[in-house]
Specification:
CATH architecture: Orthogonal Bundle
Distance between the termini: 88 Å
Number of domains: 1
Helix content: 55-70%
CATH class: Mainly Alpha
Number of helices: 7
Length: 171
């Protein structure tokens, strides 16, 4: 049995059970505490964020061990799942009207601070969703080509003339 009493600091060796736990926390931790840095700092048995990201870099290299490749797959799944959870949070924030009206001495008045805070929360969640899963939530990029028939036929005529001149030059 190994004696761990002299170990000081956070683990630096890859541990499959620990990274599974961290990936679970990526999914279950509220957004305000959901960074890898905060998750890793939340428990001394977790590696520092630098070690975690080093493991991710190793996993992305072509010669990574299978357990690191599995870790990368689990991490990506956790990040995609977290984006879905953030998406489910948006209606809860948008339709929660509890703090929208303040009761004062002179009656009710709108709570613009709460409304602004909720808008900021939603914008932050949407941004995190786009970063976590750009294929699903990112900006759609489209390219439009606008050619008219005369543009195409004119270009074809020039190409045909150039080709014919080239052939004539070879004879």
């Amino acid at each position: 049995m190994k004696d761990d009493t002299n170990n000081i600091g956070r683990p630096t060796e890859f541990d499959k059970a620990i990274v599974l736990e961290i990936c679970e926390k990526i999914i279950t931790t509220p957004p305000e505490a959901n960074s890898i840095k905060k998750i890793c700092a939340s428990d001394d048995k977790y590696p520092c964020a630098k070690s975690f990201f080093n493991w991710l870099l190793q996993a992305e290299s072509g010669e990574a061990r299978q357990e690191l490749k599995d870790f990368l797959h689990q991490y990506r799944f956790a990040v995609l799942t977290r984006a879905e959870i953030y998406g489910e949070m948006l209606p809860e924030i948008a339709f929660n009207e509890r703090r929208d009206i303040l009761q004062g001495m002179h009656g009710e008045k709108g709570n613009s601070t709460a409304v602004s805070r909720d808008r900021l929360k939603m914008d932050a969640l949407i941004y995190l969703m786009k970063v976590s899963n750009p294929a699903k939530y990112g900006e759609k990029v489209t390219t439009e080509h606008q050619f008219t028939d005369t543009d195409i036929s004119g270009s074809m005529a020039k190409l045909t003339d150039a080709y014919l001149n080239e052939i004539k030059g070879k004879k």
